[in-house]
Amino acid sequence: MAVLLSRTKGMLFLLFLPCFCSGQPAPPPLRFSIFLDPSKMVYLRWDHDEEELMTFELQVHTTGWVAFGFSSHGELPGSDIVIGGVFPNGSIYFSVS
C-alpha cells in the first residue's frame, strides 16, 4: 500500500464520503484503523461486509490533494491509485488509474 501526500498543512481531506445523495442509510462504523505515518497526519480506517465489499476512509492533513495506492507487492509501480482533491472553489475531484 502506498500513500502520496502533498505538502502537509491545514486542511483535512476525506477520501471516503458517505452516501449523502443515495437516500440509503449511512454504513456502519469501520472496525479497523491505523495511522500510516509517525506524525499521525495520515489515518486509514476500513472494514468489509459479508460479500467482501471493502470500505475505506482516509483522513489526511493536506494542502488540497491526496493519492492512495493499492498493490499486492507494497510498491507504487503497478499499483491501483486513487487521486482526489479539492479545487480552490471548493469542488471535489477523484481520479482512478
UniProtKB/TrEMBL annotation:
Pfam families for this protein: DOMON
State if Signal is listed as a keyword.
yes
Q: Which CDD domains match?
A: DOMON_DOH
Name of the molecule in the record: MOXD2 protein
Entry-linked InterPro entries:
DBH-like, DOH_DOMON, DOMON_domain
Segments forming domain DOMON: 40-97
Q: Does the keyword Isomerase apply?
A: no
Which keywords appear in this protein's UniProt record, sorted alphabetically? Signal
Q: Where is the signal peptide?
A: 1-23
What domain of life does the UniProt record list for this protein's source? Eukaryota
What is the species listed in this Swiss-Prot or TrEMBL entry? Pelecanoides urinatrix (Common diving petrel)
